[in-house]
Each structure stands twice: as structure tokens, then as C-alpha cells.
Amino acid sequence: MSPLNFTKKLTQTVDQLSESESYEGLFHQHRDGEPMPSAKVLKKIIELCRSVLFPGYYGNSTVNSRTLKYHIGVNVEKLFDLLTEQILAGLCFVSKEDCEESTENRRDKAAGLAAAFIQQLPEMRCILATDVKAAYNGDPAAESISEVIFCYPAIRAITNYRVAHALLELGVPLIPRIISEMAHSETGIDIHPGARIGSYFTIDHGTGVVIGATSIIGNHVKLYQGVTLGAKSFPLDEDGKPIKGIIRHPILEDNVIIYSNATILGRITIGKGATVGGNIWVTENVPPGTRIVQPKKKTVLPNIGYDGYGI
Fold first, then answer.
1. In this predicted model, what pLDDT tens digit does every residue of 215-248 receive, in sequence order?
2. Run of H or E residues at 308
3. What span, in angstroms and rounded, lies between the C-alpha atoms of 61 and 287?
4. pLDDT tens digits, residue range 45-78?
5. Half-sphere exposure of 119 (CA within 13 A, CB side)
6. Pairs from 247-252 (Cβ < 8 Å, separation ≥ 24)
7. Helix, strand or coil, per DSSP, at residue 195
């Protein structure tokens, strides 16, 4: 085939991809002077948050008690500047108005939100300390707190969640979801920033865990890999589209344990102290203190002179 034919095919493809009907709903119209959210910058923001929340484990590893305040001060200042710009980008991104006309007003609002978030970091560190303790106490294989902070994907994912949740509660658009999806990509743990999660929360192993947007999780709750806290159904409006913003995910009360690959669906309550075994579906309320496992089934094995039992 001649180069001319290749050029013709490429030109036709460009023409097709440039037709408005082709990209309807898939194209973000950028406005001059409008900042854009940046995954690269948000990754840096998470690194700064982790370095402030877990000094010496993340960020500068040479920090000591004499230099701690200096390093935290430097990182908080960097965090404020970067977060202000990303919050501003989020505000502009979701706005239908020309962001350039009111950039200064939005920048002031973004700076206020960034400062309000940073004020929550001491409390956030306190609750993350309970999550680390829960992971350490709940895993016989964990040899130290340091190992948990350094190695456990749950701590990374829960840290991202708590950062994203705080931003979402402050009314920051878009940015919290990007941060939670960064943790999803890094760890395989998918926690929506809208979920409400108490203290001493841990996820053992973690891969494949999904926690939906309206989930409520109490204190001292432990999940294993593959657990889903999901929705049982998606009510549709008159146009056949899912209705947004409805409460549709489970409530897990204090001291609940959910074992691997269990699927908990709908706005149901798993009562205080209950245990849900692995590989089962739960779509109804579970009373406090209840233990739910797969029933044992008696199976007659052919050509063998005894009964076999399986779970």
C-alpha cells in the first residue's frame, strides 16, 4: 500500500474522531487560564500527607526529634500551596461558569479549604494510629508497628481514604475521588471517600475490597480480602437512568468481622459483634453477636464407602 493510501486512512479517522457526535459527553472543553487537576501533583500531595502523618516512614527518612518540627513545617507549607492549586482546579473543573472571571475569589476559597484540611491533620494522625494498632494486633505475622506502616497496603489505602474523606466533607469536588482511585490503583482496595469509617479499622491482605459511597462502618471493624460492601439494586428514574445520591450500602456496627470474599448488599445492618464468614452473600440484617457461615452440606461420594462433608 502506498504512503498516500495510509495518509488518506489516517485523515479519514481524524475526521471521524473530530465529529461532535463522536465525542459528545466525552470531551471536556478547556477554557483559557483554567487550572486542571493533575494526578502527578495529587500524588505529591499524598506523599506530603503521608510524610506529615507518618514522619520518618514517608518523605525524608533522616528526620529525627531535633529536626522534626522543621521538616513538618516545610512539608505543610508545600502541602498548602499544592493543595490550594488542586482544590482550585477542582472548583473550576466542575463549574459551568468562566473560571477566569472569578479566579481570585475561587483561589481564596481554595486556600481556605486547604487550610481547613491541614487543621484536621493532628486528629487524622490520631485515628490513623488506631488503624495501625488494629492491623498490628490483628495479624500474628506482623512483627512490628514499623512493618505495618511500611508494608501493609491497608494503611496506604486507609490513609488515602481519610485524606479524601476529609476533603469531601469540606465540600471539595472531584479531588477526593481522584485520591481514592489512586489508592485503588496502588493497593487494589477501593474505598469511596463518601463512606464513613470509625477508628481501629483494618483490612487484612486487602486485595479486591470494595466499600461503597454510603457505607457506614463502626469502630474495631475488620475486613478480609475480597469483601464487597455494595448496593443490592440501582433504582432508575423515569428516563431509565440510575437515581443518584440515595442511601444504598450496608451499615457495619462496632466489632464486626467480615471474612474473605463475602458480599454484603443493600442498606442492611450487620449488628455489633457479628461475624460473617467467607464466600457468602448477605442481603438481610444480621442481629448483634450472630455468626453467619455457609451451611455444611452432606454429600455422598460415588464408589466410596463413606460420606464426605464439605463446606
1. 999 999 999 999 999 998 777 888 888 888 899 9
2. strand 307-310
3. 47
4. 999 999 999 999 998 878 899 999 999 999 999 9
5. 7
6. 247/214, 248/212, 248/214, 249/195, 249/211, 249/212, 249/213, 249/214, 249/215, 249/216, 250/212, 250/215, 250/216, 251/215, 251/216, 251/217, 252/215, 252/216, 252/217, 252/218, 252/221
7. coil
Q: What are the angstrom distances between the C-alpha of 133 and each of 150, 168, 197, 254?
A: 13, 26, 16, 16
Cα angle value 171/160/84 (rounded, 5°): 45
Residue 171's φ and ψ, nearest 5 degrees, are 90, 15
Cβ atoms of 294 and 311 within 8 Å: the answer is yes
Least confident of 53-62, 230-239, 254-263, 272-281: 230-239
pLDDT band at residue 168 under the 50/70/90 scheme:
very high
Helix (H, G, I), strand (E, B) or coil at 251: strand
Residue 228 one-letter amino acid: T
What value does the mean pLDDT take over residues 148-160? 97
What backbone torsions phi and psi does residue 222 show, to the nearest 5 degrees?
-130, 130
Q: Going by C-beta distance under 8 Å and a sequence separation of 6 or more, which residues neighbour residue 109? A: 91
Residue 257 sits at the vertex; the CA angle it makes with 254 and 259, to the nearest 5 degrees, is 160
Radius of gyration of the chain (CA): 24
What DSSP string runs through 46-99? HHHHHHHHSBTTBS-TT--TTTHHHHHHHHHHHHHHHHHHHHHHHHHHH-SS-G
Whether pLDDT at 102 is above 90: no
